[in-house]
Amino acid sequence: MAADAFAAFDAADKGSKDQEFREDLNRILICPDCKEDPPNLVEEYSSGDMVCASCGLVLDRIIDTRSEWRTFSGDDNGNEDPSRVGDAPNLMIDGDQLQTSIAFDGKGAKNLAHLQNKITQDKGTKALLQAYRDIQALTDSINTGSQVANTAKHIFKMVDDNKALKGKSQEAIVAGCIFIACRQTGVPRTFREIYGLTKVSKKEIGRVFKLLEAFLQKMGGEDKVAKATGYSQQYQAKGSTTADELCIRFCSALSFRNPVRVESIARRLTERSSEVSDLAGRSPLSVAAACIYMAAHLVGEPRSYKAIAAVSNVSDGTVKTAYRYLYAAKNTVLTKDVFPEEMFDDVLAKADKVPAA
After folding, report:
1. CATH architecture of 124-229
2. Same fold, 124-229 and 243-353
3. pLDDT greater than 70 at residue 91
4. Exposed e or buried b per residue across 6-36, where buried means at least 16 C-beta atoms within 10 angstroms of its C-beta
5. CB-based contact 140:178 (threshold 8 Å)
6. pLDDT tens per residue, range 288-329
7. pLDDT at residue 214 above 70?
8. Residue ranges of the domains in the chain?
9. Which candidate, 218, 130, 216, 131, places its Cα nearest to that of 181?
10. How sure is the predictor about 356, in pLDDT bands with cuts at 50, 70 and 90?
């Protein structure tokens, strides 16, 4: 009898303990001052409090369950870098790149760092890293994107590994690599824009460019760096930048309200301008500028000679001369076979508004 009573008491006590630690999902935390239902509560992880957003009363303490980052950057950098690891290895540089770097901190650290750098880094690696930095800076200055920079670095690496172009300055080789990379990746940049980045003469960069093309055709673009970086395609020599390719970039720089329409008309004009004998031998820069000038008037967003010349990097007199030849052949370039039917009627209606040369 007593045993049964004890067993029943033990079962009841165990059941009460289970109920004590069981979470009650029907329990809702409500601000006692506002008594809003549903409650307007905010979790402030910075202070670890559950706060009523209506009156600001602290209702409960919370635990921050977010990921805990640890900063391994230098204390004197003044930044909060959540990175747990170092930089990824650069496939353009030989070696595992896991050498230890000694900071210039403390007595004698400068001499120790100098000796360590002298042992682990050779002159070739330093020159290669400097060339990579120059390529990155120059490509960023003309907004070509990372693909052009990586392609130019790959070409320079091939030249450096094969000890080609000996006696040529590194600055000229860098400019030649960028110019070839722009052509290979389909990013139109003129030769004038490339040699304007450096202090090397136009004639010297032209020589380096010819030597680089011959070297790449001989190599075929197949080496270990190319396979590792994905640039293992066969090198193909390409022609100079066309006026059609330049229209895209020039129209975006002129800030038209409808740049797509101006660009479409200008590109159609450049395609037909090849049949104009007076424009056949002129620079693609001046042809593109003249076509944009006419297209801007056809769309109803005229731009001055000076504005277009500033963008196309030619003189306004050059733009005027090219436009005079284009205007003389107006009846040849403004035809139905150049423009689609839905566009031609609109263009033809505004053809009289195009100013005479």
Report:
1. Orthogonal Bundle (1.10)
2. yes
3. no
4. eeeeeeeeeeeeeeeeeeeeeeeeebeeeee
5. no
6. 888 898 888 888 888 888 888 888 888 888 888 888 888 888
7. yes
8. 29-64, 124-229, 243-353
9. 216
10. confident
Among the listed residues 275, 278, 289, 277, the one whose alpha carbon sits nearest the alpha carbon of residue 243: 289
Rounded Cα gap, residues 337 and 272, in angstroms: 10
| 307 vs 288: CA distance, rounded Å | 13
Q: Looking at the domain that runs over 243-353, which CATH code has it been given?
A: 1.10.472.10
Q: What percent of the chain is helix, strand and coil (3-state, nearest 5)?
A: 55, 5, 40
Which two structure tokens, joined as six digits, stand for 184? Answer: 């290979």
Token output for 104: 């210039």
pTM above 0.70, yes or no: no
Residue 70: exposed, middle, or buried by beta-carbon count in 10 A (0-12, 13-18, 19+)?
exposed
Task: Cis check for the bond before 38: say yes or no (omega within 30 of 0).
Answer: yes
Mean pLDDT of the chain: 76
> Which secondary-structure segment (H or E) carries 346?
helix 341-349
